[in-house]
Amino acid sequence: MADYTQMWQGLGLDLETHSAVLDLVGKSYQDVFLTQKNRPEGMGYFDFVMSEIHGLRIKELLDAKGEGRKIVGTFCVFVPEEIVIALNAVCVGLCAGAELGFDAAEEYLPRNTCSLIKSAFGFKLAKVCPYIESTDMIVGENTCDGKKKAYESYKDLVGNLYVMDIPQMKSSSGRGLLKAEYIRFAQALEELTGNKLTVEGLKKGIEIVNNKRKAILRLGRLRAANPVPVSGLDVLLANQVYFYDDPIRFTNSVNAICDELEKRIEDGIGVFPKDTPRILISGCPMAIPNWKLPHLIETSGATIVGEEMCTGERGTRNLSDPSGETTDELIEGIVDRYMKIDCAIFTPNQSRYDHIKEMAEKYKAQGVINYTLQFCQPYQNEAMTFGKQLEEEGIPVLNLETDYSQEDVGQLKTRIEAFIERIKQNG
Amino acid sequence: MVKAGIDIGSRTIKLVLRKGDETLHAAVRENTFNTLEVCREMLNGYDYDSITATGYGRHLFAEKFSAKVISEISAFAMGIHQVYPEVRTILDIGGQDTKAISIDDAGNLLKFEMNDKCAAGTGRFLEIMAMALRFDLNEFGENALAVPESENVNSMCTVFAESEVISLLATGADRQKVARGIHQSVIKRAISLIKRVGIKGEVAFVGGVAHNIAMKRLLEYALGRKVLVPSNPQIIGALGCTFSGFN
Question: Does A406 touch chain B if contact means CB atoms closer than 8 Å?
Answer without folding.
Answer: no
